[in-house]
Amino acid sequence: KAGVTQTPRYLIKTRGQQVTLSCSPISGHRSVSWYQQTPGQGLQFLFEYFSETQRNKGNFPGRFSGRQFSNSRSEMNVSTLELGDSALYLCASSLGQGFVDTQYFGPGTRLTVL
Amino acid sequence: AQSVTQLGSHVSVSEGALVLLRCNYSSSVPPYLFWYVQYPNQGLQLLLKYTSAATLVKGINGFEAEFKKSETSFHLTKPSAHMSDAAEYFCAVSELGGADGLTFGKGTHLIIQP
């Protein structure tokens, strides 16, 4: 069974631009969560999607948004990029919503904002 | 609100020695607790999880952790360290329903001395 895939793996943008990251979950998984990892703040929860609906959301500004499609694939969008948005963005998929089911993480997308 | 504290950003042990990584949590309701491992340039992998069943949880690669409610702790141990255990370890907490998502500690970098 293929694991969680994230595209692209690396991305360089400039301040003010917007970016869209993609996550394909493990086949059969209906929940996708997104996380931001930085050296200063560590791992922070962005949001969780289940059956195309956002179920839970972390403490991030509205510039961070996401969506989930009927095939459970998910995209995350960041608008008006700031230098502080440079981070590794991880997505994880699981069978059910919430966090009791084992989450399987992708390798991440490394975003650099110049 | 939930939070996690990992004592020691770096822990160094000799190969074959006991590994002990400390994690204390704060949660207003009975928590779900997790330990994840991250190897360089990779996503996170679940080592083990506590979801209110047995307080002693066994995970992969010989790791185990004990949930101690009175001490609000969930320390990770392994009897004999192996060179391949060198990685970053994260403790995380979630509450039923996951409204606050998955909250991670800052991580502990485990160094194995030959």
Report what the structure shows:
The complex is a heterodimer of chains A (114) and B (114). In chain A, the strands form two sheets. In chain A, strands 2, 4, 5, 6, 9, 10 and 11 form a seven-stranded mixed β-sheet that branches. In chain A, strands 1-3-8-7 form a four-stranded antiparallel β-sheet, with no helix packed on it. Chain A is 0% helix and 53% strand. Chain A contains no helices and eleven strands. With 114 residues, chain A is mainly beta. The radius of gyration of chain A is 13 Å and the shape is globular. With 114 residues, chain B is mainly β. Chain B is 0% helix and 56% strand. Chain B has no helices and eleven strands. In chain B, strands 2, 4, 5, 9, 10 and 11 form a six-stranded mixed β-sheet that branches. A five-stranded antiparallel β-sheet of chain B has the order 1-3-8-7-6, with no helix packed on it. Chain B starts with a strand and ends with a strand. In chain B, 39% of the residues are buried. The interface between A and B is medium-sized, with 26 and 26 residues.
Short structural summary:
The complex is a heterodimer of chains A (114) and B (114). Chain A is built from no helices and eleven strands. Chain A has strands at residues 5-7, 10-13, 19-24, 31-38, 42-50, 53-57, 64-68, 74-78, 87-94, 104-105, 109-113.
Secondary structure layout:
The complex is a heterodimer of chains A (114) and B (114).
Chain A: E1 5-7, E2 10-13, E3 19-24, E4 31-38, E5 42-50, E6 53-57, E7 64-68, E8 74-78, E9 87-94, E10 104-105, E11 109-113
Parallel strand pairs in A: 2-11
Antiparallel strand pairs in A: 1-3, 3-8, 4-5, 4-9, 5-6, 7-8, 9-10, 9-11
Chain B: E1 3-7, E2 10-14, E3 19-26, E4 31-38, E5 44-50, E6 56-58, E7 64-68, E8 73-78, E9 87-95, E10 103-104, E11 108-113
